[in-house]
Structure of Cartilage intermediate layer protein 1:
Amino acid sequence: MHHLSTWAFLLLLLGVTNSLAQGVWRRDSMKASPTLHYSEDDFEWTTWFNVDHPGGKGDYEQLDAIRFYYRARMCETPRALEARTTDWIPAHRTGEKVHIDPALGFWCVNAEQPPGRNCSNYSVRFLCPRGQYAGSDITAAWGAWSDWSPCSAACGQVSTQVRSRTCRSQTSRGEQQCKGPSVEGRSCKGPECPGKCKLQCVMGRVNAECDACMCEDHTVLGSVRSAGGLPAPGAPVLRYGPNPKLLTLTDHNGHFSIPGLCPDGNTTLMIRLQNHAPQLVIIPRSTDRISVLQIKLERAKKLLVEKNPENKARRVGQTTAFCCKVAGTPGPEQYEWFHNGTLLDRKQFQYDETLVLRNLRIDQAGEYYCRASNEAGAIKSKPATLTIIGQDEPSCKPTPESHLIRLPHDCYQNQTNTFYYDVGRCPLATCAGQLDNSIRCKDSVAYCCGVAKMEERHINCQGYQLPTMVVTQCGCKKCVDTKAIVRGRAVAADTGEPMRFGHVFMNGMRVSRTGYKGTFSIQVPTETERLVLTFVDNMQKFVNTTKVLQFNKKGGAVYHEIKLLRKKPPVTLESAETNTLMLGEVTGQDPIAEIQIPPNSFYRDNGEVFVGNVQASVTFLDPRDVSTAAAAQSDLNFVGSEGDTLPLRTYGMFSVDFRDEEGGESLNAGEVKVRLDAAQVKMPEHLKNMKLWSLNPETGLWEEEGDFHVEKKRRGKREERTFLIGNMEIRERRLFNLDVPENRRCYVKVRAFRSERFMPSEQVEGVVMTLINMEPTPGYSTNPRAWGRFDSVITGPNGACLPAFCDDQRADAYSAYVMANLGGEELEAVASSPKLNPNTIGVPQPYLNKLNYRRSDHDDPRVKKTAFSINVAKPSPNTAEEANGPIYSFENLKECEEAPFSAAHFRFSRVEGDRYDYNTVPFNEDDPMSWTEDYLSWWPKPMEYRACYIKVKLNAPHEINVRSRNMGGTHPKTVGQLYGIRDTRSIRDLDQSTVSAVCLEFKCSGMLYDQDRVDRTLVKVIPQGSCKRDSVNAMLQEYLVNHLPLAVNNDTNEFTMLAPLDPLGHNYGIYTVTDQDPRTAKEIALGRCFNGTSDGTSRVMKSNEGVALTFTCGDREVTRQSVFQTTQSFPGSTNGGRQGRGNRRQRGGLGALRSSRRRSTRNPFRRNQTRA
């Protein structure tokens, strides 16, 4: 593992391993046997599988289905099977009737359970012969903890017990992989002392105060060093106990001497030092006259909320609990709970970290948050909302909300004069479901408002009827289980060079690696509140970079582009001399600051002063260069004294690395002086608030290192310059910041859309919105010279609210740039030239003029259209048109988040491509919660999305529209019924003007939602116009012939197949990818299809590579608003209807999939030429 302190950080290893006893079923007995063991040399457990959900008939974790989806992870003959619920409850403890057979799998039938109860959601794993599957290279885990050591404390005293464990987990390469500590300790108290003075001494005598044992002939000598290894002068040394007593202070060398303390193994000292964690030291048992203690302190860990209270929904009279988990060193001393901003009475509610509310009333609804504090500071949790529902009220509003989906181009609706149809949807809200009487921090089952009833409707189109499912009633259902994914690329900020094969760390543990192109993907752990990742370059080209990444807690993937600063080449310093390093990167301008290192200030980790040459590399991020904003570390936030998370405005960040020139050992530096040129601070009020900060790589928060004081220095005879001087040590943290807190804050409302049809149903979730605050020059000029802060937010169903600095005195005091990114694609802002259109931009006049809205190409049409700038003018409370967005004052965040669509907002849109998707059962790819249990769902299983594409080559003088029509093929519940339609326009070959190709999505074959049996999807590929099928890929044709039934292909104008069950590959012209996010699965599959390979990717269509079908078409040019001929759409008038479908349980909300994803491949140079 690489040392993260090499450049910027020291990440501490944190981890806890819980061992839960599980029920094990052997192949021969099929009985619960928790004590069953197998030789580790012969067998190993697979990973946990969960291929079904307890809807429909029950939960069926069948071995055949698991092999279908996870063939590489399963062995042929599993020896035993282990089952547990997703809440980690062993199957034999649930009280449910279940069936287990290692040869068949696991199943739980709802009809066999007691009345009113259904099966839980189970996961299973199998015991396999070692080496027969490729699911894991881990052979074991932590061994059991040893017993606690005996407590050696005498009566009235305190001691420490320890226990240990050994790591039995290693990879095939011999690397240990256990997480967490191998040794842990806890304090223990000795027995009570009898008599008037109950203290008894095993050594020496009791002192006059009867609070310690004294040994006059014994002396304790000690040496105390700070976290960086330097001596710690002036550190208080106290005798630890119920009433700690100050014994002495360390001298200028960090040494102390205390006579009279007994070396009895019980006497405990406590050492304190500012910004360090208090440390307890037991004087070891000894018969010597002198005991020597070497003590190195650890940096204090500020309080951090590890678990925020969760939203709850309850009925009047019920009970609920909110919990707040806060960590730190030292830990929290006090908890306080607030309801709608008002402190709750501790005596009345008897709370600590848990707040319990009984016999709930309507007036107790609202927001709750906790505040934890200790002597070092405080921190507040995020608020949780408590919804209280009357006894007779419906838990969810039964009437669905309006939700419009876009229909195919040949389905114009005369009744509404649009191409839209209202299918309805249920609101995404927490509801009060069937809960047990237990008081839990987190409900054992999460309930959400979801679909209770759906009806089939038939939409009249040109020559056919299109079936669709419409929500008619909402109800309280179990929430759909989802997973949050973060993916992206790590590249150089200057050239875009990828960080190849680098490491990605979270909480000190490596969680991922970047690929050859810098790509990475991480599943966000369920309990994560704040995702802090550190990117470490193996090749040492780039500075170690810590980022706080936004993710969608509702599930799905969010894409981030990680910009990395290139590491500066080192310079050689002489440790015995004064050394000065300049901080500034803008040519022709003075440095912002300088670092001054006095002689003999370098030292090793053990505190020894270093003598010799030092290789010093200092990389400075200069905010005067606007292009560096994306490479800034963390998110520029700190925690204030009252526990609020507050923003910083930066004047520069610098990362340092000092090394022994000969041995390469990392060095620390003490008494370093930072000199900031006051002339570079353009806002005079910032001078008195400037501070030095260091980044905590575990939390991603900045922590104060020191203040500045003013010093004037004369240069020449006349010029006098003012500097801000700050002192600091450079030890385990290597990334620093010159910042000021800023309290003039607002929020900017922004929404993203699938196209330039700015309608509520066209909004896109999961878009990363970024706002860069620009620094005003003196007099608040509108020509900003540097950036001061950046923020990113993920769009939800109601857009996003971006924090920004603002001013209520001058409209042009602060300006900002806003950008939007979805999966690496930059979205377009609304045009501002040749004139402003308030209706299109989304902001009315005259407020729009006051905000000075400008798209990035306003003055130069060659510039890309992917950003806009505004003046962040704080809304005036006396001006009516400014009270309805898009700028909201800081205290009105909730009003911004809940603003109706009609309220003013700024807009981005995707560049609409030549593609159209239609699903019979609507589903919003941006919102995994909108998945609905239905046999005709395009994606039959949430959290496991399988995307399939077929590559079609077309010999034609023009680009051609191609449709895939997907219907049930072999499943009795869906045969002959429509799953959905995909329309895609071909992309012309760059070298052959009469050749184009298309990657056309079709519905994959496989298990349907009940996981009962597979369906071979009946897929028709239909080019528009006069086309004739020339050829079918020989390997694909052979596969279809050998895997009956075989679809009839009498019509040479199209191609029909029963889709393959197997993920074939480029040799067949079929491209299949499975991922936990639908958009990611489709993006990867499209990249492979464009490239014509099974493992590569391309954004340029390679028309002759990996083709499945070839057609030759006539010369009629396709129009953008093309209408498919009746014979190429649906024969008959009611094709796709549904018959004989039984009742099914529905879960989740309902959304419409209307993605207009475009790969910039028709002419990959066009946008660069026109928008460079």
Notes: The mean pLDDT is 82.
